[in-house]
Amino acid sequence: MEFVEANGATIPAVGLGTWELRGRTCARLVEHALLAGYRHIDTAEAYENEREVGEGLRASGVARHDVFVTTKVWTDHLAPRQFERATKESLVRLRLSEVDLLLIHWPNPRIPLAETVGALCRMKRAGLARHVGVSNFTVALIEEAVSLATEPLAVNQIEWHPFLDQSKVRSACRAHGMAIIAYSPIARGRIVGNDVLERIAAMHHKTAAQVSLRFLIQEGAIIIPRTSRPERLAENLAIFDFALSEKEMEDIRALAHPRGRIVEWSSAPAWD
């Protein structure tokens, strides 16, 4: 497993995303993932599966200090008191004394960012999170958050896959020593059947999904592909035994287009 260093955090480059995983399926997938070699699990208050993530972690028998656990505070709970309460409730559900990474899930323009970032940093100082960061932040929001933060911001978690150009946000993060965690790294399955990705995959005896994941790894991202199928877990990890050429990387970068974004909702910021 490779790791990415960012403002004091050492983060496994591949994690299991758990969005939409529920109940026994979620607990079982987390357990299987950890037994398969994953050491990074991503959840959130809004996913309503933190309890099951914790169950899977304990069932795996993998030592707590060997697993990097991320959770996120939902946009409705970004006022300081609510933020603290939501963080503590997440820890109760996970049955953990701290998470490795705590994120602001989405920005909320109705709550001053200074208040939210202040609350986020207090969670780190209180020992409830080893590292803190943001998610779905634009360049302007990154600049504002960094200027307000009294603790280092380790990451910005964003949608990123071959169909979406995130170069502006990447540059802003890089300037502040922040890593990017890419969610929906295989574009929720839409990469399957793409001529360019399938051609490159055939050259390496890999799948289009593996090529997409490898592309992001070589771009410096941390990836958190979600799957509900245990057999996909090993496949998503098997991306460190081949490398894409610069020509192949350029061909994949060229797939990005203005309508490439998948995750969109009414309260989203104005994307870069």
Describe the overall structure.
- The chain contains ten helices and ten strands.
- 40% of the residues lie in helices and 17% in strands.
- The model has no long low-confidence stretch (mean pLDDT 97).
- By secondary structure, it is α/β, with parallel strands linked by helices.
- The protein has one domain (3-253): TIM Barrel.
- Strand 1 and strand 2 (9-12) form a beta hairpin.
Provide a short characterization of the protein structure.
This protein has helices at residues 23-36, 50-60, 80-94, 113-125, 139-148, 167-175, 195-204, 208-218, 230-237, 246-253; strands at residues 3-6, 9-12, 16-17, 40-42, 68-73, 99-104, 129-135, 153-159, 179-183, 222-223. The chain is built from 10 helices and 10 strands.
Count of domains: 1
Query: CATH fold name, please?
Result: TIM Barrel
Structural class: alpha/beta
Net shape: globular
End-to-end CA span: 32 Å
Strand content: 15-25%
At the fourth level of CATH, the homologous superfamily is NADP-dependent oxidoreductase domain
Q: State the major sheet.
A: 8 strands, parallel
Alpha-carbon Rg, integer: 18 Å
Give, in order, the helices and strands.
Answer: EEEHEHEHEHEHEHEHHEHH
Tally the helices: what do you get? 10
Write a concise keyword list for the protein shown above:
globular, TIM Barrel, eight-stranded parallel β-sheet, alpha/beta, 10 helices, two-stranded antiparallel sheet, 10 strands, 272 residues
